Amino acid sequence: MTKAVAQDFAAKLRIVAVVLDCGTRKELCAAFRAADPRTQFEVERTQKWLQGRAVPRSGQVPAEIARILGLAQGGAWVSACSPEDFLAAVAARRGLDPATIGRMAASWGGAEPPTTVAPSRPVLAGNNHHLLGRYACYSPAWSPYFAGQLIRGCLVLEARGEGIAATYTERLVGQRVGFQGSAVATGRSLHLDMREPTGGLPVFMSTFLPGPPASVLCGVMAGVVALSHEAKPTAGRIVMVRVPAGGRDPESDNGYMPATPKAIDADLARLGLVFPAGATPGEAIRQLFFRRPPEALVDQVSDEDQARLTQLMDTAHLLIGSLA
Asked: Minimal CB count within 10 Å: which of 104, 275, 287, 323?
């Protein structure tokens, strides 16, 4: 075994780890163990392979890699090919950008996390590259002037450094409103913390964290009403549908829209989404919002609520102060 051969196999293995969405050596081994309980992937052995200190002694491991990635070239080719050819073949088979996968693989470390509970961390693009892309966003309108309608926005998730940057935009009566921030993962949930760059107005979203291909993100959004006579703290549900590669730019259609299945279906079709005959995506999205009473579409705190409780609580504190 030459050092170059070992380093080449290590580079290929990092590509495998990125494509299989594995953040650690344990996760990589678990992915192969799930496909074949007799796999030779185990943590200590895999660590040596990733460090370029050894290569598999049999053809079983390259064959497993070819099988789990769906490569028609087979295990012998996986062993003999260059990392560049391997990357090109894997990217083509999975419909991924080879340059992006290559950058992620180059920085993939695979170290195991500490045993103590760690705080929430930014979503690593190398472990969650399947989230990257553009999403058309549907949520009940918060503005009282458009009550009962939907607001169609756009979310873009893109790699930035080791994390994922998030940009959410809406169009309110012809005015573009944008929020920028980052994505944070905790368990199986995804959290987006963003702010309007000029005034710092924040908006927060929390959704399920789906596996590939991350076709839809379902969750809640919280902030304050921008188009209203008062800035009411507000929360409501939101559905974000991935736009296929080559599809229409979702931001071009941002704005208020009727909350009808027909309008939603038409919007999805403009974005390039194709569904099986008889499918009713617009109705499914609408039901997520409107299966509750109309007054429960969004949850808002009014200035009357604030004033009523302020008067009550202020009185208590003033009495405590007078007795001190």
From this structure: 323
Q: Which domains does the chain have, with CATH numbers?
A: 3-106 (no CATH), 129-308 (2.40.128.120)
Supply the DSSP symbol for 294.
G
**Residue of 76, 64, 73, 77 lying closest to 31 (CA atoms):** 64
What does the pLDDT look like over 26-78, one tens digit per residue? 888 888 888 778 888 888 888 888 887 788 877 888 888 888 888 888 888 88
| Tokens coding 242 | 């991935």
Each residue of 194-211: b (16+ CB within 10 Å) or e?
Answer: bbbeeeeeebbbbbebbe
| Measured CA angle at 132 (ends 127, 133), to 5 deg | 165
Phi, psi of 300 (to 5 degrees): -125, 145
CA dist 4 and 6 (Å) reads 5
Interior angle at CA 305, CA 139 and CA 291, nearest 5? 30
What gap in Å lies between CA 255 and CA 270, rounded to an integer? 15
Q: What is the H or E stretch that residue 10 is in?
A: helix 3-19
CA distance 164 to 135: 14
Model confidence at 324, pLDDT cuts 50, 70, 90, reads very low
DSSP 232-248: -EEEEEEEEEEPPTT--
Whose tokens are 């560049």? That residue is: 84
At 3 the pLDDT is 62
- Which residues pair with residue 164 across a beta bridge? 159
